[in-house]
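Weekly puzzle thread! Below is a chain. First person to post its structure in token form gets bragging rights.
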Amino acid sequence: NCYICFMNYILFDDSREDLLPLTFTRPVSQIRVGILTITEKWEKYLSAKCSFFTEDYLQQKFPLNSTQDNCWINGSICPNAELVKAIHSLEENQCLKQDDTLIAYRSEQGNPEESISFQGSFVRISQLWHIFEYNDVCIKSDFEFLTKGRKSQAISETNACTRPENIFIEEGAKVEHAILNASNGPIYVGKDAEIMEGSIVRGPLAMCENSVLKLGAKIYGATTLGPYCKVGGEVNNSVLMGYSNKGHDGFLGNSVLGEWCNLGADTNNSNLKNNYADVRLWNYSTQRFSNSGLQFCGLIMADHSKCGINTMFNTGTVVGVSANIFGAGFPRNFVSSFSWGGAAGYTTYKLDKVFEVAAKVMQRRSVEFDQIEKDILSTVFELTKSYRKN
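Winning reply:
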């Protein structure tokens, strides 16, 4: 299969509207679930770089590279060996489908003529809650893929471990005086990450590079801390995508935080309604609240949003991009992008102030808040104008 070497892989957006507000600032495949983003999973399975076919305003940051022989892959689907094998056997103008879901196709322009049916199984992230719902299975498959044939750093004897063979510590990571129970799933501690003293962890847990669990943190699986996240308090089945902090006590459960978010001390979210009813979540494509079918569903918060100390989030709250929430009482369970305020009401978080804060926050992690980032946030500001009253 010599042609495989020359194939060019492009990840296209699918279910983007259903994955807003997280996809306002990233292609679908840049969502992190398990240890890796969907993009990183594909690049590791294919041993090749992928480019993106996404919204025009995102293409500057996530460019498209198109050639004579393109393999277009659905960016909401997580790869596995069987799927990759089926994609590699596609010929020109063939597509791979399962029922109504287009998995991949091979052509220069699109409109493949011949359809091949895929019978195997795969994980597809097509709704916001899938990110934490499928995080268990994704951590386990990523862990197996990343650690196969490799040896973990030695686990310090100061730790109390159950099933240490399911614990993998990358180079430079520090774990001392912690309780690590990997009997329900693996515990992955990434490069230069740290689990501080007194932390109690029940896997599966994925800690990406430079993430930190603070003193006495209580973590239930399946939880993912993206790169450069700091987490304290109690966390259950949640995904923090990267550069986001929940540094203090308070509960976060069945939740997803994008990048550059910060939860003030003693912020709590409800993940179960008092009447145990299914949780309804705001959906951008239907413009109304839709039933998730889940009894447990917490907070979805998009990039650059923050909340003050003692914030209380109701079950199934969706917060947009660059919102700043503070004050007493429960904010409503849909907070639009660039909102400033809380239960007492909101004004618009002006772009110049948004830029000022984003520049400071990103600078602390040695990341530049450049013109590309400004352009993306400016476009999202315009796209979400109708949700703000002023």
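Puzzle host: Confirmed. Bonus trivia for everyone else. The first strand starts at residue 8 and ends at 12.
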